[in-house]
Automatic annotation (TrEMBL):
Pfam families: DUF1652. InterPro entries: DUF1652. This is DUF1652 domain-containing protein.
């Protein structure tokens, strides 16, 4: 395990299987339920609070809040549910959101130093 991963909790995914066994019939459909995706994303950023809201148009937003102050660390909307259809795609999304959150934190720190 690398030193940067030592403090992070593992992400556990629950598969939701379809009755269709023909890959052509399942193409474009997520293997995970919306609530499973929400739960994975909301627990992936602990101790920060993560609010994941799924819209009617099959998109979702993710808001990350600082665990102590409640300040918004990152807010991303318009993410497509169809893009998180595998455990790898969910892991990539989590990594991308963590990187964006960390970058925003560094930018905020730089702005405070300049003030």
């Amino acid at each position: 395990m690398c030193s940067s991963c030592a403090g992070r909790k593992p992400i556990h995914l629950k598969l939701v299987y379809s009755l269709h066994h023909d890959p052509a019939l399942c193409r474009g459909r997520t293997m995970f339920s919306k609530t499973d995706i929400q739960r994975v994303l909301e627990t992936a950023f602990l101790p920060s609070k993560c609010e994941c809201v799924v819209a009617l148009d099959e998109t979702f937003s993710v808001k990350l809040l600082h665990p102590e102050s409640g300040d918004i660390q990152l807010y991303v909307k318009g993410l497509s549910l169809s893009e998180v259809e595998s455990s790898r795609s969910i892991a990539r999304l989590v990594l991308s959101l963590r990187e964006q959150r960390d970058l925003m934190g560094l930018m905020d720190l730089s702005m405070r130093r300049m003030a």
